[in-house]
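Hi team,

Filling in the usual template for the complex we talked about on Friday. All components are listed, including any nucleic acid strands or ligand strings, so the model treats them as one assembly.

SUBMITTER: L.P.
PURPOSE: interface mapping
COMPONENTS: two
RESIDUES: 1029
SEQUENCES:
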Amino acid sequence: MSLFRSEPMKIRSWTPKAASLTWRLYDFQLTTYAVLLTCFGLAMAYSNSVGSTHTTLSPGSPFVRGLMWAVIAVVVFAIATMFDYRWLRTFAWPLYLANVGLLILTLRIGSNTGNAGTSARWIVIAGFQLQFSELAKIVMITVFAAYLAGRQQKITSVWTVIGAVIVLGPPWILVMLQPDLGTSLVLVATLAGMLFMSGSSLKWLGTLFGAVLAAIPFVWSNLHPYQQARLLALVNPGADPRGSGYQLIQAQTAVSSGGPLGKGLTNGTVPLPVQTTDFVWGVLAEELGFLGAMVVLALFVALLWRLLVCSWRTSDQFAMMIGCGLASMILFQVFVNVGMVIGLMPITGIPLPFVTYGGASLVSLMGGLGVLQSTNLRREPPAW
Amino acid sequence: MSVGIEHELPAPKNLYRFGTFVLAIVVAVAALGVRMFYLQVVEGQASNQVAQGESSEIEAVPSSRGLIYDSNGTLLVKNIPNFTIQVIPHDLPLSEKAVVVRRLASLLNLDPLVVDSEIDSATGSLYNPVVIATGVPTDVARVVDENHDILPGVHVVAEQQREYTNGLLYGELLGYTGPLNSDEYANLKDAGYSSEDTIGKAGLEAYYESVLRGTYGQESAALDTNGQPIPGLVTSISSPVPGSSLTLSINARDQALAQKALQWGLSAAGVKMGVIIVENPQNGEILAMVSLPGYDDNLFAQGLSQTAYQTLRDDVNTPLINKAVSEQYAPGSTYKLVTGTAGLQEGVITATTTIDSVPYIELGVYKTRYYEWNKTGWGPLNIIMGLAHSSDTFFYQLAQKVGLDRLTYWAEQFGFGAKTGVDLPGEATGIVPTNTWKMIAQGAPMYDGDIVQVGIGQGFVTSTPLQLLNAYCALANGGNLWQPHLVTKITDPNGNVTDVQPTLIRKLPASAETLQTMRDGTRAVVTSRHTYTMVDLPIKVAGKTGTAEFGIKDKYGRLPYHEWFVGYTPADAFNGDPTGTTSQLAVLAFVYGADTYGDISTEIVKYFMWLHYNLKGSPFNQKTPGYIPYWVPKRTNFYGTANNH
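RESULT (copied from the run log):
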């Protein structure tokens, strides 16, 4: 295949008839679920901004900034939808290099914003905090998809697994150096999910899993003390109720106090650490109760289902891998983030997709979904 | 066929893998759902009960911290109420905010805009109090408190604050209190400390924390639905018991005079760091202890900004460290006390044995020269004149004859190399070098050159100023090494007084004759005019000078040096026998990095004695202070390379 053979949409396909055909391929459900989840996120940001005293919204409040990011995310989504995703496959490796470059840049000039000591995760450009590790998740999905699609003929070979680990290596190490344990875990989980779905050999995947398990003691000894403390707090939150365990106990208290129906938006009272980001689920569960939490979980399940449906329908391996990658990533993040708040998983600082307040996360996710819609629009109509 | 990628086969769809993924989603979400159900529906009923205002919270009631008095009953530190005006944003209705802020600002004489921005800029929970003003006068605090119905959300909190009557004078000695840090909290939470508590951080405030603190009381406060205590619904469980008060051996007058003398000496020498300690040799009571530069305790009591604290902490002259006990320096010739006592008591010399003091001695295969401090020597000297001239070659040779083991033994008998046990935190031990010590520290045994250096208090020997003074106190009182101490009485809140008895560390295993000879030597130091005009004072002083090289050579090959003087007077300072054992006043002065003609520390002690005994005239036979005498800073090395005398 020559470099530029993959052709963009033809002009004539924008004739009304073709357009209606094209839009039939568009997955409205997928978009709807994502938008609804984003609305929940904005509601939480609103709750955090006004508090229970209904102070006026200031321009810098999470809600206002969240709205702004949502607008940007919609624009990015639209652009990604119209853009021919096959270009991404063409430019997968340059994208990969740019991604590694951005991560190095983050390490070199990144700002320490505080609560985790000397971490360098953000770059501030024009007043916006940009967290390139969020972008890295989506870029790495694209890169893995291109890689696995290219190895379709010899997918069961052990070299598929080894090659994937080598590709993952540089960005993973750069993310760990920030240090951002959460994102590095998401990268690993995403790759694992994609390898599994690509049809690679279960035997070698199992071997890789065993190797990862064996590496845990080594990684543990290289973790920062605050990271170790957060992980240990899961085992015994009572040991240090004012330190790491405090977050866990407070989070579970918040969830419990929500009850079946919740206290109502903005009525949450249990003080939580990082309410707008990692522990947003605690606020959500407290204010919207079991009912609201289940609605959000159901939306996630529906979204994941649509992602899998899109993956199943496409005839392009690259497109299928993107869908599976997104599904793996979202499933892992939801499980770890919610699990962390309710005491099933250790505290690792993984955002809740769409709901967590954070521009980079939302824009990256919507960009990823946009790419998936792009694959929908450009797939061969099903034979049936 | 997908467009443009014709040569690739349609993606093989593995139904089992997709099925497994769906199963994973189901299992993960089911796990989350079950846990959420348990937390919110099963446990949620119970926790909602808690939130209905049925609960209460046990709160600590601070006790009044013990006071500190000097030996004459002068109050050195007391507690004053510190009224703080706080606003809890949650309790301040938005509609009334502007009015309340204006009222509050006019009461506190603040700019309403400032108050407004302080409330708005507070981060964190709306229940966290925002401090608007501290140190509010009592009458204003009362007005604010009485008008709380027109000032919703505004609270007056009375906190205890320490007030030091002369914070600059007692600096590191009394220390200060401050909020617990997280490590201290972790260690002390079982002892009843709360994370917002204060604790003694330095000096006596830290050492006597458990005595001064008292016992906190407890009260039970009913909580509202937001988990906030309901005012008026507070029941006392136990009352707080105030802390005990301390009476110090410190004499406020001597402390002030000592500081005055040291400040004069430091400015005359043009340096910043120095120590003066006054001790009663008869029982180890510390009468004065000044370490300069110091700090004002009240700065800490009133709350020190982070930058101000860092400035203090990073100051090269270490104002935060009590250099009298927490730092160790080469004692120089004052250490000849140990060498001399060892020589006499081990039978190496007698009071009349003479040793030739020569321009230098040569040691080792390289014939390394160890110089007399004046590079000439005085010919044959006995121990008394050896001390009087502070002859280095005399003590080099004596140290060689005594040997390292017995030198170490005598140093330890005098209390060097071990903490004195003074009731202050952070005491240093000093170093008495042995072969074992040097093997560990430098991987080599003590060479002959090292041993002769030990004989004159140089080389590897270090001592805290207090250790050195205490050793001389043992000489001055006839051989009793007392544990120095600052607190003489502890008075509990019921008025019961516990006297702190002096502790005898050991009786020196030296004969009365040996110590008498050494005291004769220290008197000869003064009468021989080795200390210049000190002998002209109408009081009888005995003592020993010391000058110790340290640090790094300058471009001329000269080392900076410390200057020491330890002196003592008989009980009847004017007519008593300075070589007797009646002394009740021993003074040590130490100046760090001094570069003066003569010994500035001798002059400091002399000035202190002159002030202490209310002597007439001038200690310097000149109009002082203000007169710049001949011990002004010098920039050339008067004595050549060996500065030990």
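MY TAKE: The two ends of chain A are 29 Å apart (CA to CA). Chain A touches chain B through 61 residues (CB under 8 Å).

Thanks, L.
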